[in-house]
Write a structure and sequence with these properties.
- The protein folds into 3 domains: 173 residues, 3-Layer(aba) Sandwich (Rossmann fold), CATH 3.40.50; 87 residues, no CATH class; 78 residues.
- The chain is globular.
- With 429 residues, it is an alpha/beta fold.
- It contains 19 helices and 5 strands.
- The chain has a 5-stranded parallel sheet, with helices on both faces.
């Protein structure tokens, strides 16, 4: 029996009915991914010990890419990492000259969360935790409180690997600490704006904080590496950043812009794989075309093509040592188990006993798998949404049998491409 919190059940059902991955309760849906989960856990342990890694989770629409990123998010929080999961979009990119890379960094910082703060950005909480610890360790005979803490912050950033960024990042953190200790709300806000890349010009940064630079399209990854070092110094296991919807880079219309973004991804790959950065785990959710299309995918960038390897044939086997991990489809048996778990979550959500027998679950699966077009278009996402809709109908119409509702819903109708599936659709400019 699953031990399901009713609030958690509510979020799971609401998210799945909306076609998105729930941010909590992911363990109740973790079916058929044992090898992948074992690899995630072992990778997080290595990163906690000082390694870094980068992975690409590959599958088509509805196959579970976002689910795997949320799984990584959940386990990373349990292991005391600072985590951020973001979606790439037409307004966010890894490389740009028009603010899109800066916008991506800003989204990373605004989505930061930790085990004890999962519902909002935790950047300020992380800083407050460290400054409070420094204040508790303060010895009056060593000097004034504020001066002593600012000196401790400066000494910490002196050891970081990107000296120029560390110097300015440290000044912004020191400015926040000074504002916190002096109860200067405006100074705290200005320091947080700089750290989140919300300060627009160097003139503004110089005027408000005395810092001569800002975080921009060019240096955002240096800022992210510096923040990674900071969270480790504060006492966290490291930093995990998940990038979903990598297909948005694949869709960029200009080949040179795509190549520049792929070069940035190559730089991130090299930093993680060669050990130049520590305690950092980067993950990407991508379609197969995004990775393996030799014309416009990551494989079109020769240096990346050699590192990412060739596309694996579907053998039913999983090689978790690969940087690119293809998500194998769930078997009918695994989907059946998933539906059993969903039924238990649904009952916990609505505090009712929606009666669905083993035989009716089996019949539902047979009905789905035997529909015309199922081989091409049926996805776990569609199976889940349809099942939840049937449960809603059964709950609201208890006099109707599950079988009659099943017949009314499908009735031999073919499976068609999901209207939300725009993964590899390219706009022509």
């Amino acid at each position: 029996m699953l031990n399901i919190n009713p609030k958690e059940a509510h979020q799971i059902i609401a998210s799945l009915e909306g076609g998105v991955v729930p941010s909590r309760g992911i363990r109740h849906l973790l079916v058929g991914r044992r090898q992948e989960v074992d690899e995630i856990l072992s990778t997080l342990e290595r990163v906690k010990d000082g390694a870094s890694d980068i992975r690409f989770w590959v599958g088509d629409f509805g196959s579970g890419k976002s689910f795997m990123l949320q799984t990584i998010d959940t386990f990373a929080l349990e292991k005391d990492f600072v985590v951020s999961t973001v979606d790439l979009s037409p307004t966010r990119a890894f490389y740009a000259s028009n603010g899109k890379a800066r916008a991506l960094y800003r989204e990373i910082m605004n989505n930061l969360h930790i085990k004890t703060c999962q519902d909002r950005s935790c950047l300020e909480i992380v800083l407050q935790k460290w400054i409070t610890r420094l204040r508790e360790a303060w010895e009056p005979e060593n000097g004034p409180l504020v001066f002593e803490i600012l000196q401790a912050i400066e000494r910490t950033f002196d050891t970081f690997k990107v000296p120029l960024m560390a110097y300015d990042f440290g000044k912004a953190v020191a400015a926040y600490a000074q504002g916190m200790l002096n109860e200067d709300r405006e100074q705290k806000i200005q320091a947080l704006r700089w750290l989140r890349a919300e300060t627009d010009t160097k003139t503004e940064a110089k005027k408000t904080l005395g810092i001569g630079t800002i975080i921009n399209d060019t240096n955002w990854f240096d800022a992210l590496k510096t923040f990674d070092e900071l969270v480790v110094k504060i006492g966290y296991a490291g930093l995990v950043v998940n990038f979903d919807e990598l297909v948005n880079v694949y869709k960029l219309p200009r080949s040179q812009t795509r190549a520049s973004n792929y070069e940035m991804i190559l730089n991130m790959y090299n930093e993680c794989k060669t050990g130049r950065v520590q305690h950092l785990f980067l993950n990407f959710g991508a379609t197969r075309k995004t990775i393996y299309d030799s014309y416009r995918g990551l494989s079109s960038y020769r240096a990346l093509a050699g590192r990412l390897g060739t596309e694996q044939k579907e053998t039913g086997l999983v090689n978790t040592n690969r940087t690119v991990l293809a998500l194998k489809p769930l078997t009918p048996e695994e989907i059946y188990t998933l539906l059993e778990h969903l039924l238990a979550v649904y009952k916990a959500r609505y505090h009712c006993d929606v009666s669905v027998s083993y035989e009716q679950l089996r019949r539902y699966m047979e009905e789905q798998l035997n529909r015309p077009g199922a081989d091409e278009f049926l996805t776990p996402r569609a199976v889940i949404k349809d099942f939840l809709e049937l449960l809603d109908l059964k709950r609201q119409n208890p006099e109707r049998s599950f079988d009659s509702l099943l017949e009314a819903k499908f009735g031999g109708r073919p499976v068609t491409r999901d209207a939300d599936d725009h993964d590899d659709s390219l706009e022509v400019f």
